[in-house]
Structure formats: C-alpha cells, structure tokens
Amino acid sequence: MSDIEDTSADPTADTAADSSRAAAAGSDGAPEAGPRGRPRAADRDVLIEAAGLRKVHAARGAGAPTEAVAGIDFTVRRGEAFGFLGPNGAGKSTTMRMIGCVSPVSGGRLTVLGMDAAAQGPAIRARIGSVPQDDTLDTELTVRENLLVYGRYFGLTRAVIKERTERLLDFARLADKAGEQVEALSGGMRRRLTIARSLINQPEILLLDEPTTGLDPQARHLLWERLFRLKSQGVTLLLTTHYMDEAEQLCDRLVVMDHGLIVAEGTPQELIRRHCTREVLELRFAPPERPGEQAGERGDEKGADQHGDRRARGPAEPAPEPAVASAGPAARPTGSGRATDPDVTALADLGDRVEVLPDRVLLYADDGEAALAAVHRRGIQPLTALVRRAGLEDVFLTLTGRTLVD
Question: What is the tens place of the pLDDT at every residue in 79-100?
C-alpha cells in the first residue's frame, strides 16, 4: 500500500441513496422540473444550469455600474469536476458566489440542484459545501471543535456530528490532530481541515475557490488525491484555480472566462487541440543575437489570432482588449507585416505561430523536434532549446493575453 492510500470509510457514504433519490425527484417527490416547470427526465444529471447569467455591481460614488458577469451559459453534470479559469477580474469568483447563493443574480437564469438560485437560496446552501480561497477556521478552537461548530450551523445533532467528524478527520488525515488548536497546524493541514469542514453536511456539490493556493508541492498533491477520492464517490466539484497543471489534473471540463464572458469551453485536451499546437519549442538567445531583437523590444509577434492581437507589448504600447470569443484553431500568420520582418523571417515559417518575448522565443509547432532541427539547419544557434508539450497555460495566454491584471 502506498503512503497516500486510505482505507477509511466513504465520508459521503450514508447519503448515496438520498442523492440518487434527489436526482429522480424534487423536494415534494415529483419529477424534477425544467426552467419553465416542465419535467425533464433526460436532464436529471444536470445539477447546475446557467442561461444568460449576469451579475452587475452597483455604482460606487460617481462611477458607473460594473458588469462582472456578462451573460454566460453553462451546465454542470452530476459527478464531474468543472473548472473556471481566467485572469483576475474575469468573473470566476463572482460566478461561484452566485452558484453558492451568497450573491444575488442580476439577470438570466441559474438553477442549482433543480432549484432556482434567486428564490431558493437557503435550500440550496443546505446541500452544497464551500471551500473559500482564504481559510475561515477558528484558530483558537481545536480541529474537532471547528467541525462541531460548523455542523451545528446545519442543525445537525451532536451525535451525528461526532460520527461524521471521525470519518472526515480520517479522510483528511487529521485524526491525530483532532485535539490540537488550529493555530498550530501547517498551511496544508488547515486546507485539508477546511475541506473536511465543508463536507460535514454531506453536500452533493463542493465549491472550491483556489483550493491549493500557497501550498507546497507535497501538500498540493495530497489535496489532489483527496479531491479525486471525493469525485470517485460521486461528489460534484466546481473549482477556480490559477494553476494550469491543477486544472489539467482535476477537471473533466472547464471554461475560460475573460471580461465576464466565457471565451472557450471543453475538456483540457479539447482546448489544447483547438487553440494550440501539439508542442511548443522554446528558444533562448544571447541578447545581441536573438532573432527579432528589435521586434521583441516592441513586443511584436507573428500570428495574431482572428479575434484580437495577442502580442506582448512594451510599456509605451497599450494592450488591446482581450478576446471575448473562442479563437478557433491555432493562430496563423496574418500578413500584418510582422511575419515578414527580416529579423523574424528566419523563424516565421517553421511553425503555426512565433511569439517573441523579452527572455525567449516561442515557436508553436506540431513537431517541436523537427522545428528545432530546421532552426539548426538555418545556422541559428540558440543558447538553450526546449521542446515541451503544449498545455493549458499556453491556451490561457493565447485566449486572455499576457497583460497583467490586478
């Protein structure tokens, strides 16, 4: 048995039958209704459905109202892990708060567990769990006391809480810390306790906002293993994350948001195939010798996508608005003049796209080794060369740009 295997009981086991019944019937035992009251037996596995979902924050002072979520559509099915990716301010956390019924919907429709989020917030909150980005544990209480207090919020008896606490602490690998004050726990232990606490009401949906931020690699991987276990037990996971490897590891499907809109949706591999090449060749040059040096200082790039230029820019050139729709297949040369720059031409035809950054040149190609061989045949000798598999980070930057958003 490996050091991460666990033979403890399923922390959600005694609600499996209840979850099955809830999938087949509403709270009154009638078939689950659709958005206009129609039974929709074919969609019993749809736990969350948004159509034209909007969130507008009221104006502050003399300012105008801010549209944080600008009319998005998505569905989340029972038992899947669904991710929201996007830069700061894209609308991810706002969407999660509306799903958690702690922020009112401004427009459109949002149903959670077959209920209207605008009208049935308390009933929805009773059946979901939430792991906020910042831990809200009571550091002066013990690990066990934190679970007791949280369980009482849901009206659970002390006997029920005690039984669930034992199983949840085994699940979170905190059984030996049950009597310790939270203040003495490490960051990884606190995060696992927050997840254990969120499961005290045995939720059908678990919302996780940046679940592994600030954790070391060992703690992150242990937390991933715990989340995999929850998913295998039928808990539906919704998460936001800025770690692209985490999204690839955990998410069955995900959406990329930017400026309050969904700009892409699919499985991690679908998004990579749709918006990037199979491989990326990274080339680093000595500063005086790097092809496209002058272009790099301007932030020039061959191959802006069809919905917006994605070039890195110098401080004097403002960045354009990020793309607000799917960019389609990997970006191709556009004939903008930059692909014919004499300093860039040496690399321009070796891949689908060339991006000149301050510290390196990225060449997007389906066969990175062949592209590297072609670079050498042309007498170009980089200081270092790396061929790697394209990943979600490449997709993310292609769709949302490299401009820092605070």
Answer: 999 999 999 889 999 999 999 9
